Amino acid sequence: MTILLESRVPGHTTAVPGSSTAGAGNATAVAAAAVAAAATAAATTRPAQFVLTLSCPEQPGIVRAVTAFLADRGFDIVEHQQFDDHVSGNLYLRTAFTGGGLAEPNHGSHVPNQQDVDSLTAAFAPTAGEFGMEFTIHDGRPQRLLVMVSKFGHCLNDLIFRWQAGSLGAEIAVVVSNHEDLRAMAEAAGLPFIHVPVTAATKPEAEARLLELVAEYDADLVVLARYMQVLSNDLCTSLRGRAINIHHSFLPGFKGAKPYHQAYDRGVKLVGATAHYVTADLDEGPIIEQEVFRVDHSLDADALVTVGRDAETQALSRAVKWHCQHRVLLNNTRTVVFR
Fold first, then answer.
1. Domains and CATH numbers, the chain
2. pLDDT, mean of residues 224-228
3. 3-state secondary structure of 141
4. Which residues contact 190 (CB under 8 A, 6 or more apart)?
5. Which residues carry out catalysis?
6. What's the mean pLDDT in 324-335?
7. pLDDT on residue 183
8. 227 three-state secondary structure
9. What values do phi and psi take at 224, rounded to 5?
């Protein structure tokens, strides 16, 4: 089951933190700089927010332990969701909270909160040990993206628009490509564009360079926005849980080249796209989001490609946003997504 907390307004359920504002930004360096500056300013004025995500064997007392831990430190829970997986017997939980402070002894009042992720993690460790929890506490810092592309620009264009509009929930730090085709698009948005060519002979060096760029740009998430290269097993392992791919098909099915043409040949009535975590098993990583559109016999293969691109942009942007809001928890080969 999923549990949503009631807010202080009668009859209102808190499922998503405060409403977002969005405005279309011009794809120029000036606009990009203005958006980044505004985001930085907002981050310094909003109250610090943390998100706790965890999984553990289901048993009584888990929610009580979490809420008591936060209440004792003066935190206010702004969103709470949990899922009890009766098949695996595990509980998955996401709790977002904002800082009040620590209670003063013998007074009950609170002093300003000086706690950070490291101190909260250390303080919560005994509780986690008691219940066998695997947990992470995240701060409110926007996640940084390294976006990988090849020649198709629709997914990159959509991510740039949402980033500039403030609705992506993350910051694009750099664009990396094995081709030069999309340099103009990235640089028009004020983004660094780095060309890392890949051949069969240079693939190990190219992947080593990619990991260097992940560290150099402090990237939290690698987004394969129609990057048309298969990553090696070693790179997939290094990026486990930190790389999202958009597959141009409603998985499972129609794998490999020209999936929309395969779909056309089969006369499908639905086309779609799948956003999933990258694993060594090609296009079989844990699925985060899927988007589908109904089609009919009147659409030829090229029309299906156009419809499919819309599905790709929507599925990928939602997957990126949910990951960066710490709403996606891995559950073996599946995911739990707290929307």
1. 1-20+29-141 (3.30.70.260), 143-337 (3.40.50.170)
2. 96
3. coil
4. 28, 29, 30, 31, 32, 33
5. 283
6. 93
7. 98
8. coil
9. -90, 95
